[in-house]
Amino acid sequence: MTDSLPLIFYDISSPIEPRSYAPNPSKARLALSFKGVPFKTTWVDILDISDVRKGLSCPATRKFDDGSDFYTLPMLRDPASGRVVGDSFDIANYLEDMFPDSGGCLFPPDSTRTGLDYESPNKDTAFFAPLTSNLGSKNEAYARFNTHVDATFSAHVVLVAQYLPFNPNTAEAVRALFVKRAHLRSWDDICATYADLIVGGWLNMLSATMPEEEWKDFRTWHSGVFARLHDALQENYFECK
């Protein structure tokens, strides 16, 4: 790997390029820069991911809940070795193995590992695309942490799903694909989980106790995501009788 022969990083294309948004590609992108490894990005539309992975003979590392392959990104191709790595955690291990003296150390042996024992309250949630455990991989304590953090955030992706930056020319087809994957009737057929109700309980208290102007301001935080959740739960589920 040199500046003239950089690693090829495959990320999900969107209207916000060259910035990316998907969490797992973002982990790998951060790791590449943290290690100071030269790379360039190949952008792939969501509808083309399976064909691109298959074309590089990169098997799926995840399965849908029906057992079928879930082809997703990131991928990393090393032109020097010909190696293709198709999982964000595997990419981190590959970078540390291949470039141990470049940049920072992703898995420092003298780390206190504080917080790596975090356990997600959503660890038993049944996702339509079950999370990668990476059990048995190198640096397994970090792999476990990755899975639990993914579970916590994945449980709340529904709060921002309506705002995912799909490419305009394929947006409708991508939404249809996501609806099929999630076993929904339509893009707007999104069901709450108990994780939403947990947050909703706190939002209900704040709505009843905060000064009116402060509550109005709070409702604008994070592009209004708390306000939308609060309003939906109040309208559909909050009964006092």
From TrEMBL:
GO MF entries: transferase activity
Superkingdom of the source species: Eukaryota
Entry-linked Pfam families: GST_C_7 (PF22041), GST_N_2 (PF13409)
PROSITE patterns noted in UniProt: GST_NTER
Domain GST N-terminal: 12-103
Mitochondrion recorded as keyword: no
Highest classification ranks of the organism: Eukaryota, Amoebozoa, Discosea, Longamoebia, Centramoebida
Keywords: Transferase
Official protein name in the record: Glutathione S-transferase family protein, putative
